[in-house]
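dumping this here before i forget
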Amino acid sequence: MQNQASNFNEFSLLSRLFGNLYYRNPKDSVLTNVFAWLQQGGLQNAWALEEDKATKEAFASLQMKIDPNALAEEYDYLFGTEGKASTQISSIIDLDELAAFREERAMPQLENSDHVAGLLLTAAWIEDNVDSTQAQTQFFQQFLLPVSAKWLPLVEQQARLPFYRQLAYLTRELLSAMADELEEETE
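structure:
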């Protein structure tokens, strides 16, 4: 993705977008314009990866107009305090190691370091600010892929509405493509 990219590339944009959609309740005013952008096909236009039938279905689900109250209820069901797909990452990775990784690279503080969204936002920050395939590869292997391998399938299984199920699917596709690219760059 870096080959096609400007300074603020597709991977970074989508990581930030997905991170915010997992981090914020759909009723959060920060997301108002995001949902309008999604419904206008913005995600599909920003998607630089190949589109297959499943990807097109995912875009359709994220572009559908949905009742904000129903989506907020789904968000709480999945990611709330007693959520079916806890966003806490401390049971999968060592938060002290993550903090040390971030500190080594002089990254800004995370509002909540024990949240899956922080990993997506970290991946975007590394992509934008660190010219090191080694750092990206280390981050993916040590933190992002172990969490996403356990958490994204859980979201897909537990989601009752298509929105978060398809968001998890697209997140998996994005991370898989970036991991493949990093592997190619290190060979």
